[in-house]
């Protein structure tokens, strides 16, 4: 298979594309050329993955969380672009709640002769390899398992962790030379992160404990980071994705919700304090292959809802976390390099989590959660 041109499809957000990295490296080890097809939301991450020869960008209306039908001309144009590259094989990567079959239809129209995907739905003639596996495996391992089923293996010496291309910008113009902790408060769905007020209290708490804090955020998160940062360094909207990766690589620890920055931190080898709302399983979506401490009530009633917005004024599963516990988690990671992953006691009986959160005041977390992800 080493001379083949293989297409890997991962149509989703930045973190999803980063988690596809080990699969892409396995495919590259058994291919002559690898093209990666992603959506606009994941394209910046695709540009940083090793072993990718070309990145194609197209927004799939059956995957994007804010879908817009692109029109038949756009669909046919994509088919023409794919046909012109004469792919020998394709792997379609999806999360458990997504179907690969619409993508497979387009690939068949483009003349791709061999297609593999994970699918619970009957694929008919659309797939040559229909793989099925336990939904609770980590997302990176889910994709890598498909690669193995398709006949690809990671090269010798590759540990299967997340990874970026070696070259990244110098972060010094943004952060100077003194040690720092990154706080990244934003997330693509509001239900995945705590309130701005909680983040501001956490930044102040970290500073009072003697930590130099750098607050980061994407181009549409500058208002949030400005509200959160206080006297900390505010990089909201000031970095490219590659520059953010460089800032995270030089950080001592990253504090973030379930968002692309947490996976980016894992990809550059920086430990993570993960503020994880249980709307998706932490087993699948927690920071992968990196030292981490998970905080947040994993048994809140919104568990597994995939809600995009919490309808409560207070966000009990995250806002109830005491900011002092975040500082404690940061310091535990700094002084304990052998720690792999730790969960709060409320998540799994018998673990040694450090959660000291007060119970939520006001309404319990029993609202109807709207705007589920598709």
Oligomeric nature of the chains = single chain
Mean pLDDT, to the nearest integer, reads 86
CATH architecture of the largest domain: 3-Layer(aba) Sandwich
Overall helicity: 25-40%
Class inferred from helices and paired strands: alpha/beta
Number of strands: 13
Q: Into which percentage range does the β-strand content fall?
A: 5-15%
Contiguous low-pLDDT stretches (5 residues minimum) are: 345-374
Shape: globular
Tally of contiguous helical segments: 14
GO biological process, one term: lipopolysaccharide core region biosynthetic process
Pfam families: Glyco_transf_9
Organism: Rhodococcus hoagii (Corynebacterium equii)
GO cellular component, one term: cytosol
Structure description:
The protein is of the alpha/beta class. It folds into 2 domains: 145 residues, 3-Layer(aba) Sandwich (Rossmann fold); 171 residues, Rossmann fold. It is 31% helix and 14% strand. It has a 7-stranded parallel beta sheet, sandwiched between helices. The chain is globular, with a radius of gyration of 21 Å. GO terms for molecular function: ADP-heptose-lipopolysaccharide heptosyltransferase activity. Keywords: Glycosyltransferase, Transferase. This is Glycosyl transferase. One of its GO terms (biological process) is lipopolysaccharide core region biosynthetic process.
